[in-house]
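Help wanted!
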Amino acid sequence: GAVVSQHPSRVICKSGTSVKIECRSLDFQATTMFWYRQFPKQSLMLMATSNEGSKATYEQGVEKDKFLINHASLTLSTLTVTSAHPEDSSFYICSARDRVSGRAHNEQFFGPGTRLTVL
Amino acid sequence: DAKTTQPPSMDCAEGRAANLPCNHSTISGNEYVYWYRQIHSQGPQYIIHGLKNNETNEMASLIITEDRKSSTLILPHATLRDTAVYYCIVKSQGAQKLVFGQGTRLTINP
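Answered by r_m:
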């Protein structure tokens, strides 16, 4: 099946710093990638939808200036958490949809997640 | 997209069939039923999806009622590695987003 990777898998940073998380589709091209956030014992919450070559669409309540998303190529999207604070500590998960319309009926392939801890 | 209702938790003995129910009484004619699962501290994994016919793949079977208001995911011979949170999601073919509910936490016991 299609593989999506995330880097780093874990990151610890100090409050006020910025953290970049990469999401890559390894064996397919993804015109659309999604970023989710998941707090402990809660479900995944969609943060934004990222389309290659265009601005991301953010869900209501998600600050676009704090969570910068760049989708510069068909295989890479990045999420930058700017001026991170302890309340941003969470599990960040990306997913990607295969560009080939006939493949897998538009299912999404998920990355393994990145655990961010802000001290 | 239509909302789904799932039991918060279920237990199943190893080697037995695990049957996970999902209610989606407001499902529309063009909406599919998708199932994903999330093993602890990992990203979700696609399992199966269907429109109105029953579906089977190497992971599971999906049984959708004739009125399409509910469905059941069947793991025919559950193993300890099937312990996970299982999400039932209803989505139209053209919609991009997956909206995750709370899912069912399935525990497979030895």
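OP: Thanks! One thing I noticed: The longest strand of chain B covers residues 84-92.
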